[in-house]
Amino acid sequence: MNTEITIYSLLGCSIVIIALALLLLLKIKQARTWLSRAQALQKSLDEMDEQAKLIVRTDIELNKTQEELDKKIAGLYALQRFSRAVSTTLEENQIFSRIETGFLEDLGFEKALVFLWQEDKLPRNFLNIGYSEEGLKTVQSFIESNKELFAHLIRKEETASSISGFAVGKDQLNRILKVNSFIISPLSPREGNKGFLFVGTENTDIVITEGDEELIVILANQLGQALENARLFEKTWKAQQELEKKVDERTRELKNVLEEVKRISKRKTDFISSVSHELRTPLTSIKGYAAILLAGKLGNIPQEVRERLEKVNRHSDELVHMVNDLLDISRIEAGRVTMKQEPQDLQDIAEKVVDLLSLQAKEENVELKCAIAPDTRNILADHNQIERVFINLIGNALKFTPRGGKITIQSCRLEQNQVQVDITDTGCGIPPEAQEAIFEEFYRVDNAINQEVKGTGLGLALVKHIIEAHGGKIWVRSKIGAGSTFSFTLPLA
Amino acid sequence: MHIGIGISTSRDHILAAKEATEAAQVNLGKKKIDAAIIFSTIDFAHPIVLKTISGILRDVPVFGASSLGIISDQGIKKYGLAVVLLAIQEDTYFNIACVKDISKKGALLSGKELGEKLLYGCKGVRRNLSIIFSDGLIPNGPELIFGLQEKLGRSFPLVGACASDNLTFEKTYLYFGGEVLTDAVCGILFGGKWNFGLGIQHGWKPLGKPRRVTKASGDVVDEIDNAPAAGIYEEYFAKSIPEFKKDLKRIAMLYPIGIKIPGEKEYLLRNAISVKNGGLLFQGDVPEGSTIRLMIGTKDSCLEAAALAAEEAKKNLGHHTMKFALIFNSASRLTLFGRHAYREIEVIKEKLGRNIPVIGIYTYAEQAPLSAINYLGKTYFQSHTVTILGIAG
C-alpha cells in the first residue's frame, strides 16, 4: 500500500515537475520572444534616434544657412536704406547724421565710428555710435598714436577685420574699442580729407563673414562717394557764390555809373533847356530886326545887303527850329511833356503829312505812297507829336532819296494790341555801324549827302523820344544803296 | 474694458515717451484711464522715459516690461516704445503690485509676496485673472509661479511674460510706477465680471528616443540616462562641449528639451542656458525621473501652432466680443522665424479678426496653462510658446 502510494506520489510529482518544466520552457521561450522584441524595439528606437540626429544636424545646417541668408538680405535692405538716406543730402555734416543705429543693427553691428583727417593733421571724429564721451577719448588717442597704421590702410585701400586681421593686433583693437568683432574700411573720396569707417559688435555670438566685409566695403564706398559729391557740390556752390558776388558788385558799379549818367544827362537837359531859352530871346530880336531891315522900314537897302539879310533870316529860322527841337527833347527827357494819348486816325495823320510834303516830293520827282491798313487806323496817340514823327521821318526820307525814287508809308497790326508803321525809301541807305547812333542827339552820318543836306541831328532823337513816350519802339533796317525802312510801333486804341 | 495703444520709434527718448502716450490717449478717446502697460525695447529702459509717461498720466498706475521686440498692428518693432492705456469698467476690480529683490528674498517667497499684494483689498470679490511680468534672467522662475499660486490658487488663471533684452541675456527690465527695475516681478489682478479667452501653443514636436532624467536638482540637470546631461547635445549635434558651448543659446532656442507632463497633451519646453560640469542649466526646473525628448520646430509647425492658439483664444471667449489681444511670444520663435516673423503675427491677426488690436512682446519665458482648452488648467513656467490673451472686458 505504502509502496503504491509512494509510486503514485512519485508519478504525481514527476507529472507536476514535467508540467512545470514545460511551463518554464514555455515562459523561457516567451521571455526570449519578448526579449528579442524588446531588443528589436530598442534597435528601432536607436535607429530612429540616429535618424533624429541626422535630421537635427541637417536642420541646424538649414537654419544656419537661413540665418545667414536673412542676415545678408537684412544687410542689403539696410544698405539700400542707407544709400537712399545719404544720397539725399549734399551737406558733408548731414551725411553722418543720417547713419542710424537701425542700419547698423540690421548689418549686425551696434558700434560705428568715422574718422577723417588731412595728412598733416590729427584725425577728427565725424560719427560716433555706441561710445560714451570717455570711451571716444580713449579711442581717439589710440587712433592718434597709431595714425600711420591707419593711414597705410587708407593709402592701400585695404579692409581690416576680425577675419583678415590688422597691423595693430586684433586683441588690442578689440580691447580698446570694446568689441568682439570689427571691420575697418577706408573712406577715400577723391578730394579732401580721407579716413576710415569702423563698425564693431560686442556680441560674442556674431561671427563676421566675408559677406559682412563685402557689405561694409560697399557701405564705405557709398559714404566716400557721398562725401565726394558733397565736396564737389560745396566747391560748385562756393564758385557760384563767388560769381554771384562779382555780378552783384558789377551791377552795383553799373548802377552807380547809370546814376551818374542820369545825373549828367539831367544836367545836360537842364543846360540845353536854359541855354535854348536864353538863345530864343536874342534870336527873336535878330529875326525881328532882320525882318524890319528886309521890309525896308528903315530905308532902302542895297541888293547885296538884302541877300546877306535874307541869309541871316534863313539861318535864324534854322536856329529857331533847332532850339525848338532841343527844347522839346529836353522837355520830354525831363518828363515835363505829357503825351495826350487820345484815339486818333492814323490814316488821317499820315495823309495830312503826305499832303504837306507832296509838293516837295513832286519837285524832287519822288513818289510818295501811303498805304495804311484799315485795321490799324485807330491808334492811341498825341496827334501833334505823332504828326511831328511823320514829318521828321518822311522829311528825312525825302532828303536822302534821289530823284525818281519812292517813299512808301505802310502799317500792319501786331499782337499785344499794337500797330507797326514802316516808312521805306529808296535812298542811299545807312551804314550798319550808324544804324543805332542816328537816334542819338546831334549824330549825323558821315557821308557826302549829309555834307550837302542840312540838318540839326536832332530830328531822329526827338522822334525816338516821342515814340518811347507813347510806349512804343523805333528802329531802322537799311542797306547801303538799297534804301532804308524806319519802323515804329504805337498802341492801338 | 477699452484700450488705447500708442507706439513711437523716435530716437529722442523723451519725445518717444510723449508721442506714444499722447497717441494712446487719442486712441482711447475721452474714457477715464485706469492703468497703463509699458512695453519697450531695452533702448527705452530709462527712468526718464517712465517719468515722462507718468508726468503725462499723473496718478495712473504704470507697469510693464522690456523686450527684444514689440508686437503690434503695425508689425514687429525691434526698436520702439509702446504705451497701452486701459479703461476698466466700474464693476471690475483690479490691483497692481510689484515685488523687488527676488534674488535676496528667493523666488518662492517673492511669488507669495506678490500674491498677497495682488490680493490686498480683494476679499469677497470673484478673482478672475492675473497678468504678471518678471525679470527674464532670474533663476528658479517656476518657484515664483509656485509661490504666487500658493496665494492665488493652484488652478487660478495666471498669464505671464518674462522680460527680455536683445538676446544678449545680460539685463532685462521691469517697469513699475516711475521706476525701471531688474530682479523684480510686477503684475495686475482682475476681479469681478470680466471675460477673457486664452490660447497657448508652441508647435515644437518631439524627436528621437525618450530619455530619462536620472539626476537633477531644480534648474540643473546633471545626468540623463545615467550619463552627463550635456551629452545629449553633444550626441545630437556632433559637437564637443567647448564647441557647442558658444552656440548653446541659439541651439537650445531652436531645439529645446520637452518634458512629458502626466495628464497634459503638450510637452513642457525648457531652454538650456549653460553647461555646468557636464550638466545642463535650464531656464526652469526639470524634475528628476521625468521623461524628456529633444524637440524640433519648423516655421510651418509654429505657424500652425500660432493659428491654433488664436483660434483657442477666440473660442474660449465664447459669445463675448474680443476688444483686444495681448500676445506674449517666445524670443525663440523670433529666432526660428527670422525675417519671416511678421508671418506669425499676420496669421494671428487673420484668425482673431483684422479689426482686433493686438499688442505684445517677445519673452524669454511665458507663464500659462499647458492645455488651454479649459483655462482653469494649472499654469506652468514654460518657453517657446505663443500665448494669446483675448480680452472682452
Helical content of chain A, roughly? 55-70%
Cα shape of chain A:
rod-shaped
First and last CA, distance of chain A:
172 Å
Unreliable runs of chain A, pLDDT <50, ≥5 residues? none
Task: State the assembly state of the protein chains.
Answer: heterodimer
How many runs of DSSP E, i.e. beta strands of chain B?
26
- Give the strand line-up of the largest sheet of chain A: 2-1-5-4-3
Show the largest interface. Answer: A-B, 24 and 24 residues
Question: Spans of chain B with pLDDT under 50 lasting ≥5 residues?
Answer: none
The fraction of residues assigned to DSSP E strands of chain A is 15-25%
Average of pLDDT of chain B: 90
The major pleated sheet of chain A works out as: 5 strands, antiparallel
Mean pLDDT of chain A: 85
Q: How would you classify the helix and strand content of chain A by structural class?
A: alpha+beta
Strand content of chain B: 35-45%
SSE arrangement of chain A, N to C: HHHEEHHEHEEHHEHEEHEEHHEE
Largest sheet of chain B: 8 strands, antiparallel
The rounded Rg of chain A comes to: 56 Å
